[in-house]
C-alpha cells in the first residue's frame, strides 16, 4: 500500500517517518520524499495513531489526488534544487512532466490554483533558499554558487536574489542574523 505524506522534504524526514511507521508495527518497503510504500494493505486499526504521530512531527497524510500531485511537484523541485544541482540545467517543465506523467500545462494550472503561486516562482524561492544556505556556509563564492545552481551569470543570481529578498547577496552575507526559511515553509 502506498501512503502519501506531506512535508517530507529531506533525508532526515524519511528516517523519522520510517521510524514512526515501524513503531506502529507497520513495515515500510520503500521511503521516498512524500511517498511511502508499506507491506500492509489495510491500516484501519493504526490510522488514527499514525495521523496523530505524523501530525505531531509536522507531517500529514494526503488522501486526495490534487494534493498528491502538488506534493509530488514540491518534492521533485526540492530534491532537484537541494540534492541534484547537477541536473538543474534540465528544462523544469520537461522534468516535472516526465516524473509526474502528466502534461505540464495541467500540472502548472493545478499548482497555481491550489498554491496561489506558479511553479516557476516556487522553484525560484527554493533556489534562493539554497543560495542563502550556501552563503551562510561560506565555502563557495558567488561564481561557484551561480554555476552550481545553473544561473547564466553572477549578475543574474544577484538580481534574482535581490528581487526576492530585498538584499544583495553580499549584504545578506554581512548580516549577522540571517533569516532562512525552513524548506517546507517556502
3D structure, described in words:
There is one protein chain. The chain is an alpha+beta fold. The chain has 2 domains: 2-62, 2-Layer Sandwich (Alpha-Beta Plaits), CATH 3.30.70; 64-186, Arc Repressor Mutant, subunit A (Orthogonal Bundle). The protein is built from 9 helices and 4 strands, in the order E-H-E-E-H-E-H-H-H-H-H-H-H. Helix 3 (65-83) runs parallel beside helix 6 and helix 6 (119-137) packs across helix 8.
Secondary-structure blueprint of this entry?
Layout: E1 2-6, H1 11-23, E2 28-32, E3 35-38, H2 47-56, E4 60-62, H3 65-83, H4 92-100, H5 104-115, H6 119-137, H7 142-148, H8 154-165, H9 169-174
Antiparallel strand pairs: 1-3, 1-4, 2-3
Structural class: alpha+beta
Q: How many discrete domains? A: 2
CATH architecture of the largest domain: Orthogonal Bundle
CATH homolog superfamily of the largest domain: Homeodomain-like
Amino acid at each position: 500500500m502506498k501512503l502519501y505524506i506531506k512535508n517530507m522534504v529531506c533525508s532526515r524526514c524519511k528516517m523519522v517517518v520510517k521510524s514512526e511507521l515501524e513503531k506502529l508495527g507497520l513495515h515500510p518497503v520503500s521511503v521516498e520524499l512524500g511517498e511511502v510504500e508499506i507491506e500492509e494493505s489495510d491500516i484501519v486499526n493504526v490510522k488514527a495513531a499514525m495521523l496523530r504521530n505524523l501530525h505531531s512531527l509536522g507531517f500529514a497524510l494526503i488522501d486526495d489526488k490534487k494534493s498528491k500531485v502538488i506534493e509530488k511537484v514540491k518534492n521533485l523541485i526540492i530534491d532537484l534544487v537541494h540534492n541534484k544541482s547537477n541536473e538543474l540545467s534540465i528544462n523544469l517543465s520537461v522534468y516535472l512532466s516526465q516524473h509526474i506523467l502528466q502534461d505540464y500545462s495541467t500540472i502548472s494550472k493545478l499548482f497555481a490554483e491550489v498554491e496561489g503561486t506558479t511553479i516557476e516562482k516556487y522553484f525560484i524561492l527554493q533556489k534562493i533558499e539554497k543560495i542563502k544556505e550556501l552563503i551562510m556556509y561560506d565555502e563557495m563564492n558567488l561564481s561557484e554558487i551561480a554555476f552550481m545552481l545553473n544561473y547564466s551569470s553572477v549578475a543574474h543570481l544577484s538580481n534574482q536574489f535581490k528581487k526576492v529578498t530585498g538584499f544583495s547577496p553580499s549584504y545578506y552575507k554581512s548580516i549577522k542574523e540571517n533569516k532562512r526559511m525552513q524548506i517546507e515553509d517556502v
